[in-house]
C-alpha cells in the first residue's frame, strides 16, 4: 500500500469512527444508569391493560439487570403470572434524527417478543399513533428466523402496513447489530450492516411522516399478545434479552 492510499484509508476510518455522538450506553458497571433510563412497571392497567396488545407479562424492575457489560432483561413465570422488564429514556434522552445502533442477543423461544423501538416524545400530549413509532427490531418466537422492522403512523391508523419481515440466517444465535438511519426524509433499517427496508412516505406531513420531531428509546421483552402469539413455551423459561450497547450518532 503506497503512502497516499494509506493516508486515504486512515482518513476514511477516522471520519467514519468519529461521527458526532448524540448518546451512548455501554451498560458498564453493575446498575442501570438512571440519568439515561427509567423503568416501566405493571401490566398497563387500568388505562392500557395488556399494554394495548393483550400481552401477558407484568413489568417489574427486578427483572432488569446490568451485568458483565450487558443490559439483561429476564422473563420468568411465578405461579400463573409472567414477569419481565421494560425501560425507556423518556424525558431524559430524546433526540431528532441520527443513526441508532444496538448490539443485542435475542430471547427466541415461542411466545416471547423482544423489541428495540422508539416513540415520539409528545406521545402523552397527542396520543398514539399520532406520536409515531419506529420499531428498529421486533422478533417473535412463533416465526423463527425473521426480524420485523416497522413504522406506525396516523395514516396507517397505527397498523403495521409500513413494515418489512426479513429472514436472517442465524438470528437466534449470538449477538447481532440492529440499526436505523433516521433522517427528515426517510428511515432505513439494517441488520449486521445489511439494508433490510427503506421507508419513504407518500407525503411529508404529520399523518404520513410523524418523524420530524424528537423521539425516545424503549427496550422490552414482552410475552404473548397480538404479535407474540397465544402459545408460550414455558419449558424455555427463563428467557433473556441481552443488550451490549446502544449508540446514537449524527448522520
Secondary structure layout plus pairing:
Blueprint: H1 3-17, E1 21-25, E2 38-39, E3 57-59, E4 64-67, E5 70-78, E6 81-84, E7 86-88, E8 94-95, E9 98-105, E10 112-120, H2 123-126, E11 133-138, E12 146-152, E13 162-167, E14 176-182, E15 187-191, E16 194-199, E17 215-223, H3 225-228, E18 239-249
Parallel strand pairs: 3-6
Antiparallel strand pairs: 1-18, 2-7, 4-5, 5-6, 5-18, 7-17, 8-17, 9-14, 9-18, 10-11, 10-17, 11-12, 12-13, 14-15, 15-16
What would you note in describing this structure?
The chain is mainly β and 251 residues long. The protein has a single domain (21-249), classed as Jelly Rolls (Sandwich). The chain has three helices and 18 strands. The protein has helices spanning 3-17, 123-126, 225-228, and strands spanning 21-25, 38-39, 57-59, 64-67, 70-78, 81-84, 86-88, 94-95, 98-105, 112-120, 133-138, 146-152, 162-167, 176-182, 187-191, 194-199, 215-223, 239-249. Strands 1, 3, 4, 5, 6, 9, 14, 15, 16 and 18 form a ten-stranded mixed β-sheet that branches. Strands 2, 7, 8, 10, 11, 12, 13 and 17 form an eight-stranded antiparallel β-sheet that branches. The longest helix has 15 residues, at 3-17. It is globular, with a radius of gyration of 18 Å. The protein starts with a helix and ends with a strand.
Amino acid at each position: 500500500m503506497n503512502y497516499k492510499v494509506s493516508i486515504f484509508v486512515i482518513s476514511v476510518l477516522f471520519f467514519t469512527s468519529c461521527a458526532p455522538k448524540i448518546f451512548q450506553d455501554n451498560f458498564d458497571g453493575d446498575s442501570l444508569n438512571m440519568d439515561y433510563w427509567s423503568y416501566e412497571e405493571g401490566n398497563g392497567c387500568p388505562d392500557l391493560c395488556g399494554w394495548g396488545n393483550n400481552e401477558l407479562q407484568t413489568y417489574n424492575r427486578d427483572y432488569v439487570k446490568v451485568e458483565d457489560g450487558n443490559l439483561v432483561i429476564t422473563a420468568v413465570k411465578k405461579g400463573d403470572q409472567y414477569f419481565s422488564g421494560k425501560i425507556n429514556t423518556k424525558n431524559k434522552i430524546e433526540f431528532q434524527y441520527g443513526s441508532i445502533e444496538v448490539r443485542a442477543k435475542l430471547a427466541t423461544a415461542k411466545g416471547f417478543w423482544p423489541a428495540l423501538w422508539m416513540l415520539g416524545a409528545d406521545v402523552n400530549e397527542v396520543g398514539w399513533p399520532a406520536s409515531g413509532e419506529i420499531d428498529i427490531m421486533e422478533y417473535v418466537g412463533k416465526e423463527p428466523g425473521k426480524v420485523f422492522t416497522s413504522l406506525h403512523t396516523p395514516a396507517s391508523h397505527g397498523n403495521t402496513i409500513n413494515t418489512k419481515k426479513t429472514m436472517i440466517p442465524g438470528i437466534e444465535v449470538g449477538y447481532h447489530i440492529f440499526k436505523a438511519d433516521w433522517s427528515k426524509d426517510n428511515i432505513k433499517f439494517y441488520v449486521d450492516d445489511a439494508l433490510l427496508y427503506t421507508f419513504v412516505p407518500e407525503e411529508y406531513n404529520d399523518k404520513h411522516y410523524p418523524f420530524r420531531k424528537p423521539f425516545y428509546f424503549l427496550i422490552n421483552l414482552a410475552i404473548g399478545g397480538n404479535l407474540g402469539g397465544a402459545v408460550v413455551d414455558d419449558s424455555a423459561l427463563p428467557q433473556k434479552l441481552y443488550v451490549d450497547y446502544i449508540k446514537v450518532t449524527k448522520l
